[in-house]
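Reopening this one. Same input as before:
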Amino acid sequence: MDQLLARSQPNAPILDQWRYAIRPVTSLVGLSTGHPRLPGDRRSIVTSEIFLISEELGWARSYSRWYRLGQRFDGAAGNC
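Same output, byte for byte:
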């Protein structure tokens, strides 16, 4: 799957400082860079519903798009 994402979604936005959000559906919150509809670097966002995720391979699939996962939120740095 990681090779599939690298080949088919090389321009997927990066979601940095990401963590799971509490909503009626599973989603992620984080700092997005390269998002096609939410421009800017390290813009704070909440994703749509997450259907697939691989923390080990560094990707997530939401209802609307793929994300490349950057650094996971650690809570100590005060980011987000």
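So the earlier flakiness isn't reproducible anymore. For the record, The mean pLDDT is 86.
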